[in-house]
Design a protein that fits this description.
Structural class: mainly beta
Order of helices and strands: HHEEEEEEEEEEEEEEEE
Strand order of the largest sheet: 3-4-5-6
Shape: globular
Largest sheet: 4 strands, antiparallel
Oligomer: single chain
Helix content: 10-25%
Strand content: over 45%
Radius of gyration: 17 Å
Number of helices: 2
Length: 196
Amino acid sequence: IVIMLIIICIIEVMCINKNELKKKYNEKKIVTEDFIEDDISGTFEEHGSSMCSMGIDSNGKYFATGEIGKISIWDINSFSIINQIQGATGQEFYRCIDFSPEINILGTGLLNDNTIRIYNYRTGDLIKTLIGHTNTVTAIDFSPNGKLLASSSDDGSIKLWDVVTGKEINTFKVDKTYIKSVIFTNDGNYLIFSGN
């Protein structure tokens, strides 16, 4: 019963704040809110274009925002950008972002070229480009040990990648389905996905 209540509370928080998040997204700024104290704790206003995606590291120290052609890495405590990663063409549409449990590693899924890119977010260096999806990459998630990456796509597939080699390990095809999200369970043994 307690677990069920926690899940309901999390879903409710996400739903209650969806319109507020959309409004802040359109204003090209990020607002952090303390849900315990119901107080706005900070505003981040450095975006030149609308944000396309966001991700937060597992320690809660940094988060990343993607906009067209650029990823910004933010320090949550100082409300400042610690690094920016410029796309090669300036037209990259960063559809999804996830931090790896491995230090300084960030993954992104792109809308316009259907690839996944893995960066060192401290240096901005592109480490790997994963090619295999034939439509928009909708979500990515690193495994708890950081060795694997799962990706979902509007091509109706989920792919499992070896992060070190960049090779595709497996593809799970779901017929006639647009897959919108994919996550590993905490033990890394299962993948959960949603789609329509």
